[in-house]
Amino acid sequence: MDNIEANTYLSQFIGKNLRIHTSDDRVFGGQMKCTDKDRNIILALTYEYRAPPLEEIKKVVEASGTSSATVNWSSRYVGLVVVPGTHVKKIEYEESAYSKGGVVL
Amino acid sequence: MAEDRLGHATTCEDHITPIVNHDGTGASQEVRPAEKRLSAGLPLRQAMKPPLAEPKTYDITEKFTKACSALEVGQLVKDEYFTLFESIGALEIMDPKMDSGFLQPGETLEDAYDTLAPILPEELISILDQLLCHEIAWHTGYPLSQTLFTSVYIDKLLWPEPKTFEQAQFYRGEISDDRRPGLLLEVLRAYCLALVKCCDFTIARITSRDYFEEEDFCTHTYNRVLLVQTPMDVFQRELDAAIERLEDHSEMDIEASLRGALIARLKFRKRFLSALDIDFPIDYIRHCWEQVSRKLPTISTTHQLGKVVPESFSFKIQRRLASTVPPRPIVELEFKDAFEKLQQLCIDCDEATRFVDIEPDPLEYQSFLWAFASRTPTPLPYSRAYLASLLFQESSLNIPLIDLRSLVLPCSPVLDPTNWALSPPRNPMLPKPPRLQLALFIDEFVERAGQCYLDLWTALGQNRCRLRRMLTHVVTGWDQLQMDAGIVDEDIMRVVTEMGIREQVLEYPLTTWVYHKKLWMIEKVVLLGFEQDIYLHDEFAGMYLFLSSVTGRRRDLLTTIKAHFDDRKRMFLSQNTPEALTNAQETDDGTRYISSLLHDASGISALSSALSKFYTKLNYLNLLPRPTRPFSTEDLRYELRMKPFLTLTPPEVYPFADFAAQVQPYAPPFFDSPPPSFSEALRTPESWLEIEDSVKRAKEEFSAVKKLGAKAAKSDSVAISWVKDVQGVLASCVALGVAVAGVKAAVEEGEEGRELGIRFEIPGIGIGKRYAEGWVVGKVVKS
Fold it and tell me: How high is the ipTM of this complex?
């Protein structure tokens, strides 16, 4: 992939929703604003999502008696964040239900 | 409010709703990110109801990474509207200093503190007191995230957000009976709920008035809802029930002193809550703060009974608050300090309630506001908002009109109420009756002046430092108003000339009124500058010179007004009808106010002129420290100081050449050795006589103000602090006299060309060494 291709490819995600999984297993969902060679990614209007601890899942499952019980993820608004490239584990593009297409994956 | 519940069915990895963008304070949403890492080895089943409008997610990690590595070093792919400046504000994830969600290796997200574990009465006392400390710390400007929201108990009550009031417990859902909270925990719950409602009321009150977010006060609630919907009586009922259960000795055996301490805290909270209530009926407002104050001493005396439970407050709760700022430590405010602040809050609010009883007169209001803003220690944002909400409630007073009448139009035909009773002619082509025209002109002007008046009062409701800065902006608004007043004045003068009553009306009354107010504000800005140590010592001469020139103008204006009042009185007396006699009496009463203002202005002018001349001499004598200023020039510095006033018309600021001629009369530069002309002047008695005369005159004028009294100065409502102020200025006059004599003696004794053997000490601010904070008078000390 040459520089121009890379630029074109990355530019299409600007303003689109990305979910970035970090090395400590949190997920950050927000609008991509900026990225660079080191894969640092700036997200705007971001929410942080954190999985409930295992003990809590166990507790809920035991309490409800069904194994398909719903355990709530905790989430909160964190606004504008920069996720350093070294901590990015996985990047997901979220296709908006309202404006499909336009992005070549 | 947003309640971002992440319902995650352990089975479902494909059912994902989009992450809806919003600003973090908006409405609820359901979000389910695609994650399957929760499958704790459990049999999986499809979720019952897949949400609508499924978005798809695509893993783009690999290609994204490849594309990134193809970029040049330093090359950015970015939104063209996204600036470097904005990016500075971004929180860096995984950086422990920035990322409040970052966990150290092995660290758990939450503390293991059990909010249902039974507590001792001693521990409860301590928790309640600690909550109070946090509440007060919040009142002084810290955010909730560093204060009250660090309490595990409050967190449990408010999150997850209770759907009903009954759900606001230290637990959620069903619990076994043996886990049910006991009496003490129920007491704590009642207290915490009332406390949360207090916060809700506080925020409502402060945001209803002008305040500066994060500077004065933080209203951010981090998506927690402070029981906004629940009416106040519910909280009162909870508190009452808790008090009743505590008083019932059969329920639990508690030591009497501890029981008393707990009951006192609940009763305090009950009073405090009702005093903070935004809908508190104004007719009963007079004693509500006093009642709070009365509950305070017991809290203070029983504080030492407590036994601290530090684990009930946790730094970690910030991790779960919607927050766009880095994590910050818990604020530690000592109980003693918090208690003092609380006492002050009650006293200030109690003082503010006196506002409802003062005479409905804008000038009395103004004095009251000024005195309130001058209180030391400075009233907290809540107290200021409290007074402001009393001030700005619906009032039928025509504020600018009453002020106008008091200053420039005593018993004037221009403001005759019958003017407003006339109807315009049916035929719009015919001219309106002149009296009606006058009424219309005044209406027009009063409406125009309303906003300026409001701005002035808003500024008076701020803290002292902001008051000074805001006043400089208010002055420019009044400057505009003065131009508009000029136009209306032309019309008024034309009509009164036509009516043949020109001699009954002050020349250009509206302009005079606006100009007087404007000059008064400029004076206050300069005096506040001294009060807040804005000016350096070697600038004192120049700033007092400016003050003296501004006040001189105001004095001249008042002299004209006073003459008009005297004319009017004489005119009424000569008519000798009962009505005219009443008017004469009324005008006479009005004259007392004008006289008080005139004496005050003359005094300020004389005193500032004396200080200016005195400090000029001290500059030449090298008795004031002069910092080196390698990067600026005298005229640029002067321009900067005068910046707020440069645009005013008529110009109030001396051109630099004139200014320099007055503050450096003996040929600059004088830095190292005073010029010969100065040494000569020093030894002539006239140069000192001028200063001594000014001081004497100032003293006489201020004495006259004092003799006329607070009522004449329209400061009757704040008579005590008014008298203190006037005495402070008088004492400053005396101190200046002493200082002048000291320097003079040293100069006379000293030989020419030798050191004087004295030092000059300038008292600092806020240490009680100045008789009046705005009047900086130094002291001569033998060195």
Answer: 0.93
